[in-house]
Amino acid sequence: MKRGEEVINQLLVQYKLKPKEDFEAIVASNSHQAKEVIRELRKRNINIPKQVAVTAINDDEELSSMTPTVTTVAGSFYMLGFRLRNSLIKKRIMRP
Q: Which overall architecture, per CATH, does domain 3-94 show?
């Protein structure tokens, strides 16, 4: 079972959630997972984006050219790591 199928199965079957009523969006951690989620939602005849919106955290050109388009957020993992490191250093200095 692929991760997208697993997530959708968990939401709809295990938790018995209803698209649009109980949840309106799914945020995937990357474009590959977003594509799997979209494929699984389509197999179950769930309308994207009317019933469920799908977004991804990376700026993938391929996702923006899909129909329907998928909103992506560009994530700089380098900057995230840099800020996290600085935050940890600051906490360590303030509370040794």
A: 3-Layer(aba) Sandwich (3.40)
